[in-house]
Specification:
Length: 149
Amino acid sequence: MSLQDKIMDAMKTAMKSKDSMALSALRAVKSELLLVATSGGNSELKEADEIKILQKLVKQRKESAAIFSEQDREDLAQPELEQAKVIEQFLPEQMSVDEVAKVVDEVIAQTGANSMKDMGKVMGITNSRLAGKADGKTISGIVKERLSN
C-alpha cells in the first residue's frame, strides 16, 4: 500500500471519527505530496522523497510549537504537537541515539575520518544510511561529538 493510500485511509477514519486535528494534519500531508509530485513533472514519488516530505512537515510543526511555547502560547503549541504526532505515524520507526551512534562509529571507521574536516563526508554517508530513521540534528550532534575528540 502506497503512502498516498495510507493517508487517504487515515483521512477517511479521521472524518468518520470527527477528529478535526488529525484530518487537518493529513490534509496538509496530502497537499504537500501532491504539490511535490506535480511540480517535478514526475507524478510518482520515490519512498525516500515521501519520507523527506513527512520529516519536513513534522519538523515544521515542532519548530512552530517551540516558538509558540517560548511566547507562552500553549493554546497554539498543543495543536502543532498533536499534528506532528499524527504525521509521525507514517514515518519509519526512529532509531535510538545509541543505535545512531553505532552507525556513526562504523562510518567513521570505514572512512578513516579523524577531524572536523571530515564531517561532511561522514554526514553524507550516515544520512544516506539512516534516511528517515533518524533526524539530521541528532546525527550531526553525534558526528561532531565523535570527530571533536
